[in-house]
Request: fold
Amino acid sequence: MVTLWGYGYRAGLGGSAAPGVWMAGTGERILERARPGVLYADLAACNAYRTGLEAAARIGVPTLLISGERDQMTPLKHARLLAAAIPGARLLTLSGAGHMLLAERPNELLRALAGELRRPPAA
Reply:
């Protein structure tokens, strides 16, 4: 289910920028190699974390959040809440993408990050 939830619709059909790469299958192979309990510990820690918005409110540097429109692991509504909690944060949404942005949309992600690094610092 993690691989199904982690990717957007297009990725489930293949849709990789790298020819011949099956994103969902690659994700499954990576999870299969994890030691027993690792995924459970990760998901349990995420579920138990309760102070994220309070911590976000203390961020004092320019912040760009990048979210997949179809992210089922961290839904867009939660990305919006996080962006609203961080003073001056901007949220970029990649249409149709899921949670695994590095695999699904590496070029768009790189362009967004490069653009952010080129932005002049706030006064």
Q: What stands out?
A: The chain has one domain: 2-118. The mean pLDDT is 89. The radius of gyration is 16 Å. Residues 3 and 25 are 8 Å apart (CA to CA).
